[in-house]
């Protein structure tokens, strides 16, 4: 009798003993948010005020708002994210139910025929009503920690869903403005093709009048075929973008979406809030924080798995040959059992499981710190780019205007024999290149503004 008791006592003491500990992490320093954004300068100031929660309206695009609403309703990836949230909720419900007793009840009836020792047959009835309950007492808050971990993970998945919703809105918006820019690029290519056709007529007239030789004619025809190829490429690219956008919307990718709005004008600056606000607003940071907390709770659960567990088992019921007696307390039978269990020969395995959970908790801590740093970098990058993108648009607008004027003048001078074909072709190519780059710069500026809203944690 003494030996089993000693084994049990040794197991309990072993379970209570401290496990191996991870070495302290001295490299993951706590990041303290700055007072203000470093990318904000006197030339690149942001407006004071809270971060906007209606940034879609800043682009004044009713069609875009409709497309975002359609994507939110029909996008398959977002539906999967929502299902993940439902699944996490059910997992949390299961964890919560572990704190409650398991109660089962049943009723049975039995009719049997038997032969007595005197060879006489007899028929007997037996009716039974029974209820049993098993409840594990949460001695060390192990079950409570499991519940808190599951609830915390549900909150993390909810934050994932918010992040997916915001990312989808931003992706739809950027794809939409890329499609608008692609349409403008196609229209520019069509304009350039028409301009080359008009220039061909001018060269043909001068060639027929003997004012230029065949070289001019060949060069302008080369330019014309290049414009035809460019237009085909632009149309193909436009269809690719439309199909990508239609896929985000949950539609069949048929490149049938109509782009009817021009590129919007955007303001000079937006409220960027304080760096410290970022930790509260961004759903990816919230999700990472929740997972970090849940990982810590899981590590505590793993440590408490090495401790004894205590459960109570109760059962009771009635049994009688008469059905009417099942609710008669005179026929009541019951039992109560207390059960204390302790893992005896699995301590090394349980220690290893605890260590694995603590490693995962350390990984979650490091990952959370990295996500915070990445979030700050994304805001700083977007703020910095917003300033320089605006300067690019201004410079390319001036260059496009000057190039257009130069191309018109070059054609006039060529018609009058005041310049050669190479000057004309160069002026035309410069005009097209600068206007094409201007269109792309405007789209880049708008897309970066969307990225900035997303980085700041702004909703829509």
From TrEMBL:
* SUPFAM superfamilies linked: Outer membrane efflux proteins (OEP)
State the source organism's domain of life. Answer: Bacteria
Record carries keyword Membrane: yes
Keywords, in A-Z order: Lipoprotein, Membrane, Palmitate, Transmembrane, Transmembrane beta strand
Q: Which PROSITE patterns match?
A: PROKAR_LIPOPROTEIN (PS51257)
Which membrane topology term applies here?
A: Lipid-anchor
This protein's record includes keyword Membrane: yes
What GO molecular function terms would the record report?
efflux transmembrane transporter activity
Gene Ontology cellular-component terms for this entry are:
cell outer membrane
A Pfam family of this chain: OEP
The portions of this protein that span the membrane are none
Subcellular location as annotated: Cell outer membrane
Matching entries from InterPro entries are given as: MdtP/NodT-like, OMP_efflux
Q: Which protein family is named in the record?
A: Belongs to the outer membrane factor (OMF) (TC 1.B.17) family.
Q: Which NCBIfam families match?
A: outer_NodT
* Name assigned to this protein: Efflux transporter outer membrane subunit
The source organism is Candidatus Thiopontia autotrophica
């Amino acid at each position: 009798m003494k030996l089993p008791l000693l084994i049990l006592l040794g197991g309990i003491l072993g379970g209570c003993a401290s496990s191996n500990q991870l070495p302290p992490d001295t490299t993951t320093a706590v990041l303290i948010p700055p007072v203000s954004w470093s990318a904000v300068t006197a030339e690149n100031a942001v407006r004071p005020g809270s971060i906007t929660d209606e940034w879609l309206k800043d682009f004044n695009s009713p069609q875009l708002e409709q497309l975002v609403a359609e994507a939110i309703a029909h996008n398959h990836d977002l539906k999967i994210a929502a299902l993940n949230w439902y699944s996490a909720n059910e997992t949390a419900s299961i964890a919560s139910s572990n704190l409650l007793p398991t109660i089962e009840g049943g009723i049975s009836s039995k009719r049997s025929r038997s032969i007595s020792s005197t060879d006489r047959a007899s028929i007997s009835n037996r009716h039974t009503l029974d209820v049993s309950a098993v409840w594990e007492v949460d001695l060390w808050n192990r079950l409570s920690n499991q519940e808190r971990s599951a609830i915390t993970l549900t909150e993390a998945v909810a934050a994932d869903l918010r992040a997916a919703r915001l990312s989808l809105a931003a992706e739809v918006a950027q794809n939409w403005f890329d499609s608008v820019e692609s349409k403008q690029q196609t229209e520019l290519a069509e304009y350039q093709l028409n301009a080359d056709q008009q220039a061909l007529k001018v060269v043909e007239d001068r060639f027929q009048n003997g004012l230029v030789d065949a070289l001019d004619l060949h060069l302008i025809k080369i330019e014309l075929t290049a414009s035809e190829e460019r237009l085909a490429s632009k149309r193909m690219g436009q269809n690719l973008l439309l199909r990508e956008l239609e896929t985000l919307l949950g539609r069949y990718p048929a490149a049938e979406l109509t782009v009817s709005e021009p590129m919007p004008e955007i303001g000079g600056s937006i409220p960027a809030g304080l760096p410290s606000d970022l930790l509260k607003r961004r759903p990816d940071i919230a999700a990472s924080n929740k997972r970090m907390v849940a990982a810590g709770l899981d590590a505590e659960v793993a440590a408490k798995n090495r401790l004894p567990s205590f459960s109570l088992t109760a059962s009771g019921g009635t049994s009688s040959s008469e059905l009417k007696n099942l609710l008669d307390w005179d026929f009541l039978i019951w039992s109560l059992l207390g059960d204390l269990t302790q893992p005896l020969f699995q301590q090394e395995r349980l220690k290893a499981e605890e260590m694995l959970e603590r490693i995962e908790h350390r990984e979650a801590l490091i990952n959370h710190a990295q996500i915070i740093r990445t979030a700050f970098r994304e805001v700083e990058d977007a703020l910095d780019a917003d300033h320089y993108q605006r300067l690019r648009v201004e410079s390319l607008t001036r260059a496009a205007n000057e190039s257009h004027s130069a191309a018109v003048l070059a054609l006039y001078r060529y018609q009058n024999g005041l310049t050669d074909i190479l000057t004309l072709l160069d002026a035309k190519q410069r005009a097209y290149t600068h206007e094409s780059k201007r269109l792309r710069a405007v789209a880049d500026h708008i897309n970066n503004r969307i990225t900035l809203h997303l980085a700041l944690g702004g909703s829509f």
